[in-house]
């Protein structure tokens, strides 16, 4: 059986047909004009081209399309007639879906031809506020955020490799020297090359079933009662945060039941808890509240956007900064559970927000005493 492939083209005007197919156009022209020469003339093609295409399609499909009786006008074979019948049936049955697909494609491509619209590629750690920002920016500023959610490490790596213009990641507030956050992110970020953009402060904590039936209040409780836990994947900022918190509490990862299992997002962690597959996971408050779950806050963290310094003046980046500074956006952000606006849209110094780089002056050499 031959498979059907769909394609589309861009043109100033739509053609009369919903879906065009070159072979069907040829067969219809032969039927309507009674000869290959008539079909070629009507389609403004050469006889040689039409004849060659029909022969090529016959070889490809393994069926005769045209009855080539000597001295008689060319006519469609039974197979050719059935192909045209099938095409008419498909067009009639799928007309509403085809029209909807046409409209969707035209709506999306209209952005490319709109000089007032912008598109910004953004790789980011999973975050409910970014999903809300994507909708708000498109509706209010004609800024279309091409967001791809991934781990914080992968997001910054994508930025450094030129696969996106902006990245999103999160860390505990002012993570000090020697922390796991420093070990994870410092080698990926360079003062003078990267610029932080303020976005939000959000709460991370334990996502638990409604009513918190196990009475969980801390990571130590997970170890004590052997609660079934689900982790986040390696390379995610939440996984880095968990390992940091466990180290601070003196808890070995092996002591957490389910530490080796993981989910790809905060929403997936919340769904695992809601389904009863696990008792608890680490995630953001918004993910818990959206599924009617309870939440035990553990700490607040900063969620930053970061770009290369050279990208700051690009129109899409400037459009994003303007949206982030709007009172309407800050109000929308503040309404999300567990979120607080924090210097939204401000360009921040890397060294000031992530104080890992020590450029202290070298100590003066001691002066020798004169004898």
Question: Topology, please?
Answer:
Blueprint (H helix, E strand, L loop, with lengths): L21 H12 L2 H8 L3 H15 L4 E2 L7 E2 L1 H35 L5 E7 L3 H14 L1 E7 L2 H9 L5 E7 L7 H6 L8 E15 L10 H7 L3 E4 L4 H13 L12 E2 L2 H9 L5 E5 H5 L4 E15 L6 H10 L2 H8 L4 E3 L5 E2 L1 H4 L18
Parallel strand pairs: 3-4, 3-5, 7-8, 7-9
Antiparallel strand pairs: 1-2, 5-10, 6-9, 6-10, 6-11, 6-12
Helix pairs in contact: 1-2, 2-3
Folded structure, characterized:
This protein is an alpha/beta fold and about 375 residues long. It has two domains: about 20-110, Orthogonal Bundle (Arc Repressor Mutant, subunit A), CATH 1.10.10.10; about 120-355, 3-Layer(aba) Sandwich (D-Maltodextrin-Binding Protein, domain 2). The chain contains 14 helices and twelve strands. The chain has helices at about 20-35, 35-45, 45-60, 80-110, 130-140, 150-160, 180-185, 220-225, 235-250, 265-275, 285-290, 315-325, 325-335, 350-355, and strands spanning about 65, 75, 120-125, 145-150, 165-170, 195-210, 230, 260-265, 280-285, 295-310, 340, 345-350. The strands form two sheets. Strands 3, 4, 5, 6, 7, 8, 9, 10, 11 and 12 form a ten-stranded mixed sheet that branches. Strands 1-2 form a two-stranded antiparallel sheet. Helix 5 links the parallel strand 3 (about 120-125) and strand 4. The termini are far apart. Mean pLDDT is about 90; it is low at about 360-370.
């Amino acid at each position: 059986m031959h498979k059907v492939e769909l394609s589309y083209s861009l043109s100033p005007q739509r053609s009369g047909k919903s879906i065009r197919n070159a072979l069907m156009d040829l067969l219809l022209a032969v039927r309507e004009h009674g000869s290959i020469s008539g079909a070629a003339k009507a389609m403004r093609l050469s006889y040689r081209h039409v004849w060659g295409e029909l022969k090529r399609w016959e070889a490809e499909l393994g069926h005769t399309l045209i009855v080539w009786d000597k001295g008689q006008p060319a006519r469609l074979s039974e197979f050719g007639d059935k192909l045209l019948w099938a095409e008419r049936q498909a067009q009639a049955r799928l007309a509403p879906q085809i029209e909807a697909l046409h409209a969707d494609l035209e709506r999306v491509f209209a952005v490319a031809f709109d000089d007032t619209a912008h598109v910004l590629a953004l790789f980011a750690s999973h975050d409910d506020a970014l999903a809300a920002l994507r909708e708000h920016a498109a509706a209010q500023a004609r800024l279309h955020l091409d967001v791809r959610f991934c781990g914080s490490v992968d997001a910054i790596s994508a930025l450094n490799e030129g696969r996106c213009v902006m990245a999103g990641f999160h860390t505990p507030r002012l993570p000090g020297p020697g922390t796991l956050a420093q070990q994870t992110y410092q080698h990926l970020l360079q003062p003078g090359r990267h610029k932080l953009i303020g976005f939000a402060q959000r709460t991370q904590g334990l996502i638990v079933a409604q009513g918190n039936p196990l009475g969980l209040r801390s990571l130590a409780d997970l170890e004590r009662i052997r609660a079934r836990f689900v982790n986040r994947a390696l390379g995610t900022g939440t996984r880095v945060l968990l390992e940091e918190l466990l180290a601070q509490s003196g808890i070995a990862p092996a002591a957490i039941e389910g530490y080796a299992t993981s989910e790809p997002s905060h929403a997936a962690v919340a769904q695992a808890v809601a389904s009863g597959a696990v008792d608890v996971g680490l995630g953001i408050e918004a993910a818990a509240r959206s599924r009617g779950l309870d939440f035990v806050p553990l700490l607040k963290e900063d969620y930053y956007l970061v770009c290369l310094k050279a990208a700051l003046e690009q129109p899409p980046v400037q459009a994003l900064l303007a949206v982030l500074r709007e009172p309407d956006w800050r109000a929308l952000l503040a309404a999300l559970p567990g979120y607080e606006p924090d210097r939204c849209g401000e360009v921040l110094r890397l060294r000031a927000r992530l104080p890992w780089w020590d450029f202290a002056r070298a100590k003066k050499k001691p002066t020798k005493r004169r004898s």
